[in-house]
Design goal:
By secondary structure, the protein is of the alpha+beta class. The chain has 3 domains: 214 residues, no CATH class; 85 residues, Helix Hairpins, CATH 1.10.287.130; 143 residues, Histidine kinase-like ATPase, C-terminal domain (Heat Shock Protein 90), CATH 3.30.565.10. 47% of the residues lie in helices and 15% in strands. Helix 6 packs antiparallel against helix 7 and helix 8 crosses helix 9. One of its GO terms (cellular component) is plasma membrane.
Length: 495
């Protein structure tokens, strides 16, 4: 399988389609949760309304019975009034007619003594008595054989008085129970209707949400497509194209700005590379031309050639080529490493400077090299890299100094500061940064150059940066003074 091929073939590749599908899926989950909540809330509210309606009817029936009146059979909800010691119902209506309670009561008579006026809600099974169904009405509510929520309350016949009890057709010591069947069908119908509306509205909403997300992302990605098309035309040899930065200030603006900054860095890197290659070719051509000319003249006139002088010239130019090649290889290695990732060995810069002062071969016997340090100065890094950095600074000073080169090392708070100061002609302030560029040699330095490659200071600054330090040219009235500052490490003797 291709590494770039997605493992899930069913998942759309388009960002627009993926976003629309993700938004629609999220919306479906939200709508489903909302629909479930609405469904249960509507059903709960409808059931509560049905129970309140049944309770009102129950108390209304109780009030009529206390007055000795037989309730109207055309009740809103099915009801039945039964009494102990009586086979048939005292009163019924609201759909109980189909069960023929006039022949035999449907719901049970009270078998226990309960406090009169106490409301009770209980599920009861209504028996299916097909042999007593009324052929005229029938069980049109479908109550028979089902279990339904029933509200009931008891009334004592003794509290009604003998006359009212006689009007109701019950004994004076009988107990009456008023039943009202709660019918949640209205709530169920409302719930079913609400569910249908929610389902249709949810489907339409999902389609609209997915379409809106698709086209919104499509519009939002137009600048990205323009950026992609433009960056596709950028080549390593010509990274001068720039993308248009939208004025909206959103993430696309940040993306365009970042891409332009990246393209600018690529352009700068390509320009530096071209300049580096051109400068390297120029620096290599000079010793090669001298070497070739010397050898060709000697070969053309071998009998008159000064072969020792020719060999000396060839050796000098070869050493110059070797030094240039080593510097170029070092720069190539430094360019491939991440900044700030130098080895973390403990290095005493005071000891390094003192050792270099003792071993450094001065090109002129009139030059003096001294080291001024008061105490060990510890830092962390690569000892060879620090020695190469310091040697490059001393090499540069030796080529320009008149009589004296001085190295100083000091501990200043959390930094170690090393300076290399010579008494040469100095460097103009305008060129204080340019001298650290690769292959840059000032006119005065070039006229007095004794084999420098023009890379020493560039390598020194790069090594300083890789040790989280800085290398700058400090202003001086006499000569040049290079200032190196690196992080200070704890003295092992103090630990």
């Amino acid at each position: 399988m291709n590494a770039t091929e997605p493992h899930r073939r069913w998942w759309p590749r388009s960002v627009r389609a993926r976003t629309a599908l993700a938004v629609a899926s999220t919306a479906a989950v939200i709508l489903a949760g909302t629909g479930w909540w609405v469904h249960h809330d509507v059903h709960r509210q409808g059931t509560r309304i049905a129970e309140e309606q049944a309770e009102r009817q129950l108390w209304s029936l109780c009030a009529q019975l206390r007055q000795g009146a037989v309730p109207d059979p055309t009740g809103t909800l099915p009801y039945e009034v039964v009494a102990s010691g009586r086979r048939s119902a005292v009163a019924y209506g609201g759909g109980m007619d189909g069960l023929d309670p006039g022949t035999r009561h449907v719901l049970p008579v009270p078998s226990e003594t309960r406090e009169p006026g106490l409301l009770t809600i209980r599920p009861l099974r209504i028996p299916d008595r097909g042999d007593h169904k009324s052929p005229s009405n029938g069980d049109w509510l479908g109550l028979a054989g089902g279990t339904h929520t029933v509200m009931f309350a008891d009334i004592g016949a003794a509290a009604l008085g003998g006359e009212k009890a006689a009007e109701l057709g019950v004994a004076a010591d009988a107990r009456l129970r008023v039943y009202v069947v709660v019918l949640p069908r209205t709530a169920e119908k409302i719930t079913e209707t609400t569910d249908g509306v929610l389902l249709r509205a949810g489907l339409v909403s999902l389609v609209l949400i997915a379409a809106a997300a698709y086209f919104t992302v499509r519009v939002a990605l137009r600048p990205v497509e323009a950026i992609r098309a433009l960056t596709a035309s950028v080549t390593a040899s010509d990274p001068r194209e720039r993308v248009t930065v939208p004025a909206t200030g959103h993430e696309i603006t940040a993306l365009a700005t970042t891409i332009n900054a990246t393209l600018q860095r690529l352009d700068d890197a390509a320009a530096r590379q071209r300049r580096f290659v051109a400068d390297a070719a120029h620096e290599l051509r000079s010793p090669l031309t001298t070497l070739l000319a010397s050898l060709e003249v000697a070969l053309a006139y071998p009998e008159r050639a000064d072969w020792p002088a020719t060999a000396t010239t060839a050796a000098r130019q070869t050493r110059r080529l070797q030094a240039l090649a080593e510097d170029l290889l070092l720069l190539a290695r430094l360019d491939t490493r991440a900044p700030g990732r130098a080895e973390a060995e403990l290095v005493d810069l005071t000891a390094t400077a003192s050792r270099l002062t003792e071993q450094y071969p001065l090109p002129d016997s009139q030059l003096t090299l001294t080291c001024d340090s008061t105490a060990p100065a510890y830092t962390r890094g690569n000892p060879d890299a620090y020695e190469r950095l310091l040697r490059n600074l001393v090499d540069n000073a030796a080529r320009h100094a008149a009589h004296r080169i001085q190295i100083t090392v000091r501990n200043e708070d959390d930094r170690v500061v090393l300076t290399v100061h010579d008494d040469g002609p100095g460097i103009p302030a305008a060129d204080a940064e340019r001298v650290f560029e690769r292959f840059v040699r000032l006119d005065d330095a070039r006229s007095r150059d004794q084999g420098g490659t023009g890379l020493g200071l560039a390598i020194a600054r790069d090594l300083a940066h890789r040790h989280q330090g800085t290398l700058t040219l400090a202003p001086r009235t006499l000569g040049a003074c290079f200032h190196l500052s690196v992080p200070r490490a704890a003295d092992p003797a103090e630990g």
